[in-house]
Specification:
heterodimer, A: mainly alpha, MetI-like fold, 13 helices, B: mainly alpha, 2 domains
């Protein structure tokens, strides 16, 4: 009886249930907190960074971080092999990671949603072509193709965003296709078609609002995916180019000194790990909250 | 089954053809491969000579069909850097990558399937939480960073394993862990979902009701059915691993195809890069082809639809 009661209460107050689900979900809370903090840090980088991230100070090279006996509060996370303040580079690096993650997810989201919704709604030949494109895309190794293209075109922020955007649309297309297929068979879609709504209108007012939850979940996970790929590309020297403070590049630059100065790779690595972890927690949590039935 | 096989084969061939076209076209993104090859100090006459020597002066489609025809016969051209046949070069490096891939996928399966089964037997238990925790961590761990951390701890601090090279089996331990750990979360999640689903079916209840021992129900009745989608996922992950091997092999200086890919890309060795993209893609296509056939054979619903 108590269960039934609480169920009806839940139904009555939709909004507060949404918030209580968020607050009751540890993963989302951790994810939101870290992501919000990183976004804030990235936005206010010029205000909070203690030093210029590009300023070289060859007299103060490889100063260890503050927790080391030789460290000082002047450089909280120490300095790199060119004497640049590591904390400032880390702060500015957050901008690059977020920019690439969001930029790439925007491009791939547009492509993938367009293809997926078209395939799911029109079916038939359109579906065949889109499914074929997805298969082709999946057969090509992402890292190899991205590396090759960046090597040929030249590494820059825009190139990395574009290349990743053009490569990561597969999951968007797959999920949007299946969600659209599901919504397409609903009575209200048939009703909208029956009263003579145009295809554009049906897509925009009936289909899109109902698949947007899934879209947001995939977008979140793909942002994390793009961030990790950018770091890997930059680490291999074929992503964002120096002197930009990309976290992957920082790990790469610190790699040769990692045996004696391990903080050079642990600090940017932990930053990368935490950001990606937080975004993934956010994405997984968003799925649990908006569609608890898909939890498994 | 025959009809399904033929249909699937036609699809695979079409995908392979498209991939070959893309991998060929990709490298023409640069304005002129002859200039890229000749280097910055070359004179116009040098560039022109290279252009004619390699046939870059012909229309792209002609070059493509020429390349495709030879690729079909196993000739992927000559490496600009090594001055040897690309096919021979890749053939020489591929066994190392295959060994690494097989070790990694085995490691991933041995890690994730038991965890997934344990998690499914008792959902929301301690083990389930540990499994979920590991999979969330695994997805967020950048493989290159994980590799460096392993080197610091296992090689430098504990002096257990060699850091680079591919001479003994010890050299494969860390690359296997790094590459395998990356594939494990997806396999674990799918095993868990599949097992949860199967365990709630009627035939499992029947099997339990007629008094079969729990482990017989679990392994003979449940796992065998839950593992079907896992097989095709493992095949897909194995295909992805070849791509992932670039990062891992470069860090551990494992002389496989992934390392070759990185070397050729940084050296502007276009024919080798083209060949590698083609070989990696073909491998994935063949792998998914057989995985789909296996699935269709195990599950008649797939081949009828």
């Amino acid at each position: 009886m108590a269960e039934v009661l609480s169920k009806t209460q839940e139904i009555q107050s939709g909004g507060s249930v949404f918030w209580s689900r968020i607050l009751g979900h540890q993963g989302v809370l951790i994810g939101v907190t870290i992501v919000a903090a990183v976004i804030l840090i990235a936005l206010s980088a010029p205000l909070i960074a203690p030093h210029d991230p590009y300023h070289q100070d060859l007299m103060n090279r490889l100063v260890p971080p503050v927790w080391d006996a030789r460290g000082s509060w002047e450089h909280i996370f120490g300095t790199d092999h060119l004497g640049r303040d590591y904390l400032s580079r880390l702060i500015y690096g957050a901008r690059i990671s977020l920019l690439i993650g969001i930029g790439a997810a925007l491009i791939s989201g547009l492509i993938g949603t367009f293809l997926g919704v078209a395939a799911g709604y029109f079916g038939g030949r359109v579906d065949m072509v889109v499914t074929f494109l997805i298969t082709v895309r999946l057969s090509m190794p992402v890292v190899l193709v991205a590396l090759a293209v960046v090597a040929i075109v030249g590494g820059s922020l825009q190139v990395v965003i574009t290349v990743l955007g053009l490569l990561l649309w597969d999951r968007f297309a797959v999920v949007m296709r299946s969600s659209t297929l599901q919504i397409r068979s609903m009575d209200y879609v048939a009703a909208a078609e029956a009263v003579g709504c145009s295809t554009t209108r049906v897509l925009m007012t009936e289909i899109m609002p109902n698949v947007v939850n899934n879209l947001i979940v995939i977008a979140t996970l793909e942002i994390a995916h793009a961030i990790i790929l950018e770091a890997a590309l930059s680490f291999l020297g074929l992503g964002v180019q120096p002197p930009l403070p990309s976290w992957g590049l920082m790990v790469s630059e610190g790699k040769d000194m990692m045996l004696f100065e391990p903080w050079l790779i642990t600090i940017p690595g932990v930053a990368l790990f935490l950001l990606v972890l937080a975004i993934n927690l956010l994405g997984d949590g968003a799925r649990d909250i908006t569609a608890p039935e898909n939890r498994n | 089954m025959l009809y399904y096989t033929l249909k699937r084969l036609a699809l695979a061939a079409l995908v392979a053809l498209t991939v070959s076209f893309i991998s060929f076209g990709l490298l023409y993104l640069s304005s002129d491969p002859a200039i890229a090859m000749a280097g910055e100090t070359a004179s116009d006459a040098d560039i022109e000579a290279i252009r004619q020597l390699y046939g870059f002066d012909r229309p792209i489609l002609v070059q493509y069909f020429d390349w495709l025809q030879r690729a079909a016969a196993g000739d992927l051209g000559k490496s600009y850097y090594f001055r040897t046949d690309v096919s021979a070069l890749i053939g020489e490096r591929l066994p190392t990558t295959m060994t690494l891939g097989v070790c990694a996928i085995t490691f991933a399966i041995l890690l994730s399937v038991p965890l997934g089964v344990a998690a499914a037997i008792r959902p929301n238990s301690f083990i389930d939480r540990i499994a979920l925790f590991l999979s969330v961590m695994g997805q967020a761990l950048p493989s290159f960073w994980f590799a460096l951390m392993l080197i610091i701890f296992l090689s430098v601090s504990l002096r257990l394993l060699p850091t680079s090279g591919s001479d003994t089996w010890l050299h494969f331990v860390m690359p296997t862990v790094v590459l395998g750990y990356y594939a494990a979360p997806a396999i674990m999640r799918l095993t868990r979902t599949g097992m949860l689903e199967v365990l709630s079916t009627d035939y499992i209840r029947t099997a339990r009701a007629k008094g079969l021992r729990p482990w017989v129900v679990l392994f003979k009745h449940a796992l065998r059915n839950a593992v079907i989608p896992v097989v095709s996922l493992a095949a897909v992950q194995f295909g992805f691993m070849l791509g992932g091997s670039i990062v891992v092999e470069t860090i551990f200086a494992l002389h496989g195809a992934g390392f070759l890919a990185w070397e050729s890309i940084t050296r502007n060795d276009l024919p080798t890069v083209q060949g590698l993209i083609l070989v990696f893609s073909l491998f994935y296509i063949v792998l998914t082809f057989f995985a789909d056939l296996l699935n269709a054979w195990l599950d008649p619903r797939i081949r009828i639809n």
